[in-house]
Amino acid sequence: MEENRQIAGKQSLLFSNPPYIQCTACIAGKKEGEGPLGHMIEEINEDPMFGMNTWEEAESKLQALTVNKLLKKANLIPGEIRYIFAGDLLGQLIGTTFGLMDFQIPLFGLYGACSTMGESMALAAMSVNAGYADRVIALASSHYAGAEKQFRYPLEYGNQRPLSATWTVTGCGSLLIGREKSMVRIAGITTGKVVDYGVKDSMNMGACMAPAAADLIYANFMDFNVNETYYDMIITGDLGEVGRTILLELLKDKGYDLSKNHMDCGLEIYDNHTQDTHSGGSGCGCSAVVLCSYILKQLEKNRWKRVLFIPTGAMLSTVSFNEGKSVPGIAHGIILESV
User: Fold this and answer.
1) Residue 275 sits in the same domain as residue 192
2) What number is the average pLDDT over the span 317-338?
3) What's the predicted TM-score (pTM) here?
4) Is 274 exposed, middle or buried (CB count within 10 Å of its CB: 0-12, 13-18, 19+)?
5) SS3 (DSSP) at 110
């Protein structure tokens, strides 16, 4: 059998026909607009209900608005898109299912918790690289109130949040990925494994996800025979202050120092002190919005040449938590390069 030169190591791919990020669109909520990246986010919607009657409907509307914006910017109609790879945090992906239903574009509904943007980008890029599609959309969303309602406490309860807690981002980021050349390409991916250090504190997502992020970064280094200096920035999804500290220590133990070129989306999207978000931001929309509003702009302007983008997710449900299970984590890595 002929060797597949696109396969790198045990968990990675290096694309022979790298797909390009041709267009982006993102919409976020009022709190996100008040944060450090607010001036860079494309559209801020100050109505948390997005004109709908329930939090779940609000997230569906958020996704629909974002895809409409993306198609309009790209001057495309739904029939010109081969697939959508998308997901959210709600049970059975109802935010995605109802939000994207009317577009009638073939849909892969994905759940990777807060790592979903990485998962959607990886699968979208694989499809384009393999020649199965010319144009695809990758997106992920989250909504603060919907996530609180499902995973924690209804907002009306007014419970005290510990300092390790993160604030779920209300936002959606979407990418048009295709063959046509642009300023940023997806050079390769590293697919993460479920990693469980036995943490059971659902209010400390950073501690739950940091081991998975460290495992993914180490796997990427091994698969490509590189180290932290290979990337201008290594960007995790939503570890927050607690998770970032753990990540740096775990990789330091393996001989890698990420202190100078690591960034976390959860620490960028909010000002933790003035906005009372405690450890930082989280949710599928966190890395998606930061990617579309900030990260890709740095690559387009050649301020960064190569980035390892790593959305991170905590794989819990109300069922597993109530049954006393720990909270495993997962991470997915995307290699983004300036062209």
Assistant:
1) yes
2) 90
3) 0.94
4) exposed
5) coil
